[in-house]
Amino acid sequence: MGKPATILASIALITITAGFGFAETFHNGHTGACEGCHGSSGADGSYASLLGADASSTCLRCHAAANPQDYQIATDPPPADGLPPKAMTPAGDFAYLKKNYTWTNGNGSRGQSPGERHGHNILAAGYGYVADSTLNVSPGGTYPAGQLSCISCHDPHGNYRLVDVYGTITTDHNPIGESGSYGAVPTADAAVGSYRLLAGKGYQPKGSTHVFANDPPIAVAPKEYNRSESTSDTRVAYGKGMSKWCANCHEALLGGSANHLHPADAELGPIAGMYNNYIKSGDMSGMQAGAYTSLVPFQTAEATDPQQLSMEVTSTAGPNPNDRVTCLTCHRAHASGWDSITRWNARGTFITVAGEYPGTDAGGNGRDGENSTGKLMAEYKAAMYNRDAAKFAVFQRQLCNKCHGKD
Ligand code: HEC
Ligand code: HEC
Ligand code: HEC
Ligand code: HEC
Ligand code: HEC
Ligand code: HEC
Fold first, then answer.
1. Backbone angles phi, psi at 137, to 5 degrees
2. For ligand 1, atom 36, which residue shows the shortest CA distance?
3. Taking the chain, what is the end-to-end CA distance rounded to the nearest angstrom?
4. Are 172 and 156 in contact, with CB atoms under 8 Å apart?
5. Under 8 Å between Cβ of 127 and 98
6. Whose Cα sits closest to atom 25 in ligand 5?
7. Which residues, judged by CB distance below 6 Å to any ligand atom, belong to the binding site of ligand 3?
8. How many other C-beta atoms can be found within 10 angstroms of the C-beta atom of residue 79?
9. Distance in angstroms (rounded) separating the CA atoms of residues 89 and 72
10. Which residues line ligand 5 (CB under 6 A)?
11. Rounded to an integer, what distance in angstroms lies between the CA atom of residue 162 and that of residue 167?
């Protein structure tokens, strides 16, 4: 029995070493070591092959884990029934795509919140992620669901870069010095990568006929961004271009449309005052200095200077009238616990009932299907990034009220 054990041990050792070798710096804002994705010197010399079954499966070799940390954005294997996905990043944990929730309504009918409604259904054959079965193309656009992968949105070679503080994005000009996600400022001879290696104008991933019309947003995230928000919020300062970037695939939704209730990229105007005063249902005694919540983030005006955005990252202040409502005000970019990838449950009436989160194991209205969406209270709390229910009103209504104050 000694031999297999030795082999297993050395395989484990290789895996761990590889993990440590890449830790903290792989892409560094641009093209990572080719062999990290293509195998040693591109195996066939042409870089046509990938280490994973497909593009997303190649990314998930490093970006998925049983206990996802830092840059890992998918719990793998997916948690069993009754247990929540574990990553708590701004974009969210893709494992929600594998969580199917069902319940029985008061009138005996069945309710459901299927996994595929919880996020962007990336194709990753090596990890059991399959295309959306109901939405064939991006709503409000034409991007084929059958081609959606990590590299639909992120440029695997990280070529898009910010070359000045005025928001100029190019794919050449100066070399990239470091990641553009944490506030580094471009200099006269070094650019910084685009926020989160997001693709921009003219981008066409291999095999796709769809072409991006808009550049990546300018934004700054805190260095520690995969964390519970029980004690403080993880604040990403979104700058210019956030909503327009989503419109690369959802063109028609930008201005609000017949089949989507809300405009995006609009200035808050007087609504900023509402956001700042709103603390919770029935309590409008707040002040701008402490008004921010990452459940309802906004875009900082048309900011393009990473240094300015860096200051927002550590602030708890609410918006000014020239700040904007963005797609990410209500949605996460990858996945969430809720239908239509919303940041909170937009389906039910209540976010809390009698001071507690809803759940199939809760009392009163908290047990109702549309409120619990088939989750246990502990799962619900995890989908709220471990915030304490006591931060809300005893009977908290929809967070649309943070801006519209109708409760
Ligand atoms: C983070 C992962 C990653 C890294 C690092 C990476 N590539 Fe790629 N590369 C990809 C993916 C994914 C594709 C798309 C392949 C596909 O879908 O079949 C690709 C495609 C290519 C292609 C095909 C042309 C195209 O359509 O883009 C070439 C050539 C290539 N890579 C070269 C390189 C070289 C050279 C390096 C190192 C400087 C490199 N790659 C680093 C992931 C990576
Ligand atoms: C060999 C391991 C490895 C592979 C493969 C890999 N990544 Fe990463 N990725 C990392 C590490 C480590 C970090 C954090 C440090 C960094 O950004 O260099 C990271 C960070 C990132 C970030 C945040 C970067 C930033 O600057 O904000 C994005 C986005 C990302 N990866 C996307 C991808 C995509 C898309 C693929 C597949 C095409 C991929 N990664 C493949 C290891 C990997
Ligand atoms: C529909 C577009 C889209 C797809 C598909 C997508 N991403 Fe992202 N990703 C984003 C955006 C936008 C952000 C920035 C979110 C934010 O800051 O709120 C992001 C953020 C990230 C981050 C930083 C951590 C975080 O959660 O904010 C990593 C790492 C990452 N993506 C990797 C991946 C990998 C790996 C895949 C495929 C398994 C993938 N992404 C698929 C759009 C996408
Ligand atoms: C590369 C193209 C692409 C980009 C960029 C993109 N999406 Fe999508 N999106 C799609 C596709 C394709 C679908 C339909 C398939 C699916 O839901 O998996 C979709 C579906 C959605 C859905 C519906 C999910 C559901 O199942 O009900 C929401 C919400 C959404 N996107 C929001 C966003 C937001 C917010 C952004 C910007 C952060 C964004 N998208 C950027 C391609 C894209
Ligand atoms: C004020 C909140 C809010 C903003 C801002 C917002 N959405 Fe939505 N979105 C929702 C809600 C709530 C739903 C689910 C109910 C519905 O379909 O209207 C939804 C649904 C969707 C869907 C699914 C539609 C379908 O046919 O299944 C997509 C796609 C989407 N949003 C994309 C976007 C994009 C892209 C933006 C930015 C241009 C955006 N949303 C801005 C709240 C918002
Ligand atoms: C970050 C603040 C914010 C949040 C959160 C928010 N809204 Fe709005 N809402 C706005 C702004 C700003 C406008 C005005 C947009 C404009 O100038 O056309 C608006 C306009 C509207 C309108 C009028 C639409 C129109 O076409 O003029 C409706 C209805 C609405 N919101 C409903 C909602 C609902 C429902 C939610 C929750 C899903 C929500 N809002 C969340 C800021 C917000």
1. -135, 165
2. 34
3. 67
4. no
5. no
6. 139
7. 56, 59-60, 63, 71, 73, 89-91, 94, 120, 122, 148, 150, 152-154, 196, 198, 221, 236, 328, 333-334
8. 19
9. 9
10. 139, 243, 246-247, 250, 253-254, 259-262, 264, 325, 327, 329-331, 340, 342, 346
11. 7
At residue 101, the 3 state secondary structure works out as strand
What is the CB neighbour count within 10 angstroms for residue 9? 10
Three-state SS for 178?
Answer: strand
The answer to whether 163 touches 174, Cβ cutoff 8 Å, is yes
**Helix H or strand E segment including 402:** helix 401-404
Cα–Cα distance list, 136 to 54, 94, 209 (Å)? 20, 19, 16
Residue located via tokens 């944490």: 182
Reported pTM: 0.96
Q: Say yes or no: CB of residue 27 within 6 Å of ligand 2.
A: yes
* 353-386 pLDDT, tens digit each: 999 999 999 989 999 999 999 999 999 999 999 9
- Cα 113 from Cα 98, distance rounded (Å): 11
Please give the radius of gyration of the chain, using alpha carbons only, rounded to the nearest integer.
22
319: preceding bond cis by omega (within 30 degrees):
no
Q: Supply 42's token pair.
A: 């591109």
For residue 397, the number of C-alpha atoms closer than 13 Å in the C-beta half-sphere is 12
**How far is it, in rounded angstroms, from Cα 116 to Cα 96?**
8
Asked if 83 and 153 touch (Cβ cutoff 8 Å), the reply is no
Q: How far is 74 from 82, CA to CA, in rounded Å? A: 17
CA distance 404 to 295: 15
How does 343-376 read in b/e, with b if 16+ C-beta sit within 10 Å?
bbbebbebbbbeebbbbbebeebbbbbbbbbbbb
Structure confidence by residue, pLDDT tens digits, 110-145: 999 999 999 999 999 999 999 999 999 999 999 999
